[in-house]
Design a protein that fits this description.
Elements (H helix, E strand, L loop, with lengths): L2 H12 L2 H14 L6 H6 L9 E5 L5 H4 L10 E6 L5 H11 L2 E6 L13 E7 L9 H7 E12 L5 H13 L10 H8 L5 H5 L3 E9 L2 E4 L4 H16 L6 H18 L3 E4 L2 E9 L7
Parallel strand pairs: 1-2, 1-4, 2-3, 4-5
Antiparallel strand pairs: 5-9, 6-9, 7-8
């Protein structure tokens, strides 16, 4: 998938602020693990020395919100996201956290214009699989004592939903047995299983923590399950332009059948936290 197609895909999913907020609430309410993963990621870290913080793919500022009481009031948090509509929400988070903040509405390639060897902390949750190629640049942005903390999915994330979509698409002739869905390609670019391998050339120390989780939809919650799938559907159906409504209806019918036969529907949502320190080439070194 080329960069232009990927950015279009991301924009299609995340531009709708209200839908994104509703889906985030849906995930929280149906998760078996009720601990906040972003708070878990920062729980055992002393970040009071971090003054210059960059939140990549910041969205509403979910990860920045976890900085509350973890950083100095003199800290400044810069959010970078390609969706301009997130700016007021991100700045409101910064106010709640008690830090100064600014928002850059730009694609991730903007990191190449940011100052090197400047940032004490870079954070990124559920976004690095969209742009793992910038990992070397992240190391260059950090100070020698800087930290990079990122959260990502396990490779089987949403595996049950992917299987249901694949079954439906094969039945109606839109997918061969060997074809992969776009969502599978995206998650595979940076996941729990390959994250260390991708990070290790650029950081001398990498600590990890696993976050087991699943979403459970009861038999009478099929409508909520369908809402969750519809929000994610651009990641499943990019490149399939013909008969899109018919395809969505076929997948929805299959999800209903599976949910009724299994007395509900469970979706795997295991994640991993990577805490990276000792950047190998901070400040643009090679």
């Amino acid at each position: 998938m080329n960069r232009e197609a990927q950015q279009s895909q991301v924009a299609e999913v995340f531009t709708g602020v209200a839908a994104h907020q509703e889906t985030a609430a849906l995930i929280r309410s149906h998760s078996t693990n009720q601990r906040d993963i972003r708070e878990e990621a920062l729980a055992n870290l002393d970040l009071h020395h971090c003054r210059r913080i960059l939140d990549l793919g910041c969205g509403f500022g979910f990860f920045s919100e976890a900085l509350r009481n973890k950083v100095s009031p003199t800290a400044h948090v810069t959010g970078l996201d390609m969706i301009p509509a997130y700016e007021p929400l991100f700045l409101e988070v910064c106010k709640r956290v008690g830090v100064q903040g600014c928002f850059l509405a730009a694609p991730v390639s903007h990191v190449h214009t940011l100052p090197e060897g400047y940032w004490d902390l870079v954070i990124c949750s559920y976004a690095l699989y969209f742009f793992p190629e910038i990992i070397p640049r992240i190391a260059q942005l950090l100070t020698p004592a800087g930290l990079f903390i990122t959260i990502t999915h396990a490779s089987d994330n949403m595996g049950e939903l992917i299987a249901a979509a694949r079954t439906s698409l094969r039945r109606i002739g839109f997918l061969s047995d060997r074809e992969r869905l776009p969502i599978e390609e995206i998650i595979g670019r940076f996941c729990a299983e390959n994250g260390r391998e991708l990070l290790s050339p650029w950081f001398d120390r990498i600590d990890t923590a696993d976050y087991p989780n699943a979403l459970i939809f009861k038999p009478d919650e099929v409508s909520l399950l369908l809402n969750y799938f519809l929000f994610k559907s651009p990641f499943f159906l990019t490149g399939i332009d013909r008969e899109r409504d018919g395809i969505l209806n076929a997948i929805a019918a299959h999800l209903k059948d599976v949910s009724q036969s299994q007395q509900g529907f469970t979706i795997s949502k295991d994640d991993r936290i990577f805490i990276c320190s000792q950047p190998r080439f901070p400040g643009g070194g090679t």
